Structures are given as C-alpha cells and as structure tokens.
Amino acid sequence: MHSLPLFVPLPGQPVILLGTGEPAEAKRRLIERAGGIPVADETSAARIAFVALEDEAQARDAAARLKARGLLVNVVDRPDLCDFT
C-alpha cells in the first residue's frame, strides 16, 4: 500500500486554491461542500492547497513554493506533483 486514506476536517478552514477555469471551479465546489474557505492568498494559514494552473512550469513552481511551506498539495491532472489525491 503506497497511500493512506485520510479525511481532513475543513469547516471554517482556509484552503489555498490557485488557478482559473473549470478545473479550479470544480475544486472550489469541493472545498466549499466540505465547509472549507477557498483562498488565493499563498500566505494564508492554510494547511492544504490545490493548484489548477494549465501552464506546466507555473504549476510546478506553485507546488514547490507551497510544499516548501509544509502544505499538502494537489496539482490538478499532475499526479507526480501531488501529495494527496
């Protein structure tokens, strides 16, 4: 087993969401349904982040910045960059 299924309580918690378009909107809906507060501010007190950027280099850079801060990161359609799915 290479993954551990986890559930993270999100009510009232900021969740970083970077990107635009339908992929970002889909993640926004998921965050909000779980009670989280989607924020675009990379300096927020969030513990997890979603990156929905189309440009490969921008997505990699954003993921690296967020991971360097200790956040768990999911990058849409790039499983090799994800800490969680």
Q: What is the compact description of this entry?
A:
The protein is of the alpha/beta class. The chain has helices spanning 21-33, 56-68, and strands at residues 14-19, 37-39, 48-52, 72-75. Helix 2 links the parallel strand 3 and strand 4 (72-75).
Average pLDDT figure: 95
SSE string, helix = H, strand = E? EHEEHE
Helix content percent band: 25-40%
Poorly predicted regions: none
**Side-by-side strand order of the widest sheet:** 2-1-3-4
Keywords:
4 strands; 85 residues; 31% helix; 4-stranded parallel β-sheet; alpha/beta; single chain
Structural summary, described in words:
Helix content is 31%, strand content 21%. Helix 1 links the parallel strand 1 (14-19) and strand 2 (37-39). A four-stranded parallel beta sheet has the order 2-1-3-4, sandwiched between helices. The radius of gyration is 12 Å and the shape is globular. It has helices at 21-33, 56-68, and strands at residues 14-19, 37-39, 48-52, 72-75. The chain is an alpha/beta fold and 85 residues long. The protein is built from two helices and four strands; from the N terminus they run βαββαβ.
